[in-house]
């Protein structure tokens, strides 16, 4: 079982083995956390992403972190919120699961996630937070998974939501 914690920070500043990018399926940059990661990693990140040829929703790809303190960036593509009946929950859970799997294959021990899909993609924060925590808890029962998973919240409101959900009994809600 990994250590899970939530912090309030800019994910581009974290000195961890891998940070996760909430990307789009082109993997060619964008706004939000994606834009911040590309700015901080430098232009070599875009070059590396071009070679990946995109990524379907729910899947993950990995690149070096280049100028970031983090050694790797795991790029995953969250679902756009369409009201909850377009497989959004399963796709969001797949983002967390596939990102952790890919990170583990690269020897990552400490990994930080942003709140995938809860910005531009419009996923309601409470539901997205529950999926993030429950999926990570389930996956990291496997000892081959990263030892420490950090939920990197970009606002005090997001941090309060994560802290509340982490204290709630697993599986409820
Ligand atoms: N560190 C940590 N979290 C951040 C940072 C940061 N530096 N900047 C923003 N966030 P979003 P999405 C938070 O919109 O909803 C992009 O254009 C933000 O407050 O970045 O998955 C992509 O290219 C929010 O909590 O990602 C896609 O087109 C969370 O990161 C699209 O947006 C996710 O918000 C993906 O949308």
Automatic annotation (TrEMBL):
Molecular function GO terms recorded: hydrolase activity
A Pfam family matched in the record: Macro
Alphabetically ordered keywords of this record: Hydrolase
Coiled-coil residue windows: none
InterPro entries found in the cross-reference section: Macro_dom, Macro_dom-like
UniProt keyword Transcription regulation present: no
Name used for this protein in its record: O-acetyl-ADP-ribose deacetylase
Iron keyword on record: no
EC nos: 3.5.1.-
Species this chain originates from: Amantichitinum ursilacus
CDD domains given in the database record: Macro_OAADPr_deacetylase
Catalytic EC class: hydrolase
Record domain Macro: where: 1-170
SUPFAM superfamilies: Macro domain-like
């Amino acid at each position: 079982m990994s250590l899970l914690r939530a912090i309030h920070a800019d994910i581009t500043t974290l000195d961890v083995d891998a940070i996760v990018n909430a990307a789009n399926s082109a993997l060619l940059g964008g706004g939000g956390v994606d834009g911040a990661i590309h700015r901080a990693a430098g232009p070599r990140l875009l070059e590396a992403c071009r070679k990946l040829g995109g990524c379907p929703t729910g899947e993950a790809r990995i690149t070096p972190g280049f100028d970031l303190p983090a050694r790797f960036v795991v790029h995953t593509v969250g679902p756009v919120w369409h009201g909850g009946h377009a497989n959004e929950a399963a796709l969001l859970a797949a983002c967390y699961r596939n990102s952790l799997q890919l990170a583990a294959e690269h020897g990552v021990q400490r990994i930080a996630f942003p709140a995938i899909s809860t910005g531009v993609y419009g996923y309601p924060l409470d539901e997205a937070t529950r999926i993030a925590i429950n999926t990570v808890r389930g996956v990291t029962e496997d000892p081959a998974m990263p030892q420490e998973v950090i939920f990197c919240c970009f606002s005090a409101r997001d941090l309060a939501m994560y802290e509340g959900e982490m204290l709630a009994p697993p599986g409820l809600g």
